[in-house]
Specification:
By secondary structure, this protein is of the alpha/beta class. Helix content is 29%, strand content 17%. The protein folds into two domains: 1-88 and 127-168, Rossmann fold, CATH 3.40.50; 92-124 and 173-297, Dihydrodipicolinate Reductase, domain 2. α3 runs parallel beside α4 (68-81) and α5 (95-105) packs across α7.
């Protein structure tokens, strides 16, 4: 779509055939076995679907698609065409994720009923730039803007969208939720064997979708309710982003003390906290670093 932006990669693989349009690639390169999709979120589904229908295995960077409808259709297509698929989530390879799961499975902090996860380091909201969308900018010579837009409705080129800043715009990206939830919540899904929630409630103070819908909230809080799984109790999971919302602080935990630092492993930190608090049923708090945990008695 943009060989100018892809310059370093083009130089590194100068002998590789190059295509701006994925459809031409699938038409001409019949011998390929698999496709890697690392484009902006809004084009993940259409490229992945074309590859699956062509009988190619697919590795797609997270998030898998731009909407839940697209995700469901891709799932159906992968089963129908019997191809191997994988979602890109590099945190899945971290040893600390497995340590966390094993600690939970071993009952180190008792039954987990509540989880708080926060990413407050930065935010993709572009509310401050909404009025600049209609500004005139020349399309770079190296960019096929119509192809870049793909399934999105037409709009004028703006460097606020490409290169790189598309994550903050709802027509192209999925904001903090789409970019970070899969990283930070995935360890919880693995450890607690969670499936689909039975309810989801979101708060975003000062955000009006009718006015700000082209972008995302400056800060949000989302509560997920998960049902019991076998002998495991129901779980309430809270997600926070931005600086407006934050998890409750454990009553007996010293402010400023951060469990994500230091040389102690996940198991040691959880065991120490469990012993200190006498936890039998716990709330788990996680931050941007895998393994940043703290339980509190319930």
């Amino acid at each position: 779509m943009d060989f100018g932006y892809a310059g370093p990669a083009v130089k590194d693989f100068s002998d590789a055939p190059r295509y701006k349009d994925y459809r031409r690639l699938l038409e001409k390169e019949k011998g390929i076995d698999a496709v890697i999709v690392g484009t902006p979120d809004h084009t993940h589904a259409m490229i992945s679907m074309a590859a699956i229908r062509a009988g190619k295995h697919v590795y797609c960077e997270k998030p898998l698609a731009h909407t839940l409808y697209e995700v469901r259709k891709l799932t159906e297509a992968a089963r129908e065409h019997n191809v191997a698929t994988q979602l890109g989530n590099q945190g899945k390879t971290y040893e600390s994720l497995q340590e966390l799961a094993e600690c939970i499975w071993a009952g180190t902090i008792g039954e987990v009923r509540e989880v708080h996860i926060q990413q407050a380091g930065y935010n993709y909201s572009r509310i401050d730039a909404l009025s600049s969308q209609m500004d005139d900018h020349p399309v770079p010579d190296s960019l096929d803007w119509d192809l870049w837009l793909g399934p999105a409705s037409f709009r004028k080129y703006n460097p606020m969208y490409h290169p790189g800043a598309w994550r903050g715009w709802s027509n192209f990206g999925t904001g903090m939720f789409g970019d970070w939830v899969c990283h930070l919540i995935d360890p919880v899904f693995t450890a607690l064997d969670l499936g689909a929630p039975i309810s989801v409630v979101a708060e975003a103070e000062g955000y009006d979708h009718k006015i700000h819908g082209e972008t995302f909230p400056l800060s949000s809080k989302i509560r997920f309710e998960f049902p019991a799984r076998g002998q495991r109790p129901p779980v309430t999971l809270y997600w926070y982003d931005g600086d407006r919302y934050a998890p409750p602080h454990p009553k007996n935990w010293k402010k400023g003390k951060n469990l994500s630092h230091g040389r102690a492993g996940t198991a040691s930190r959880l065991a120490a906290l469990s012993s200190a608090t006498g936890a039998r049923s716990s709330t788990v708090r996680m931050g941007p670093r895998t393994g940043a945990l703290s339980p509190r008695p319930r």
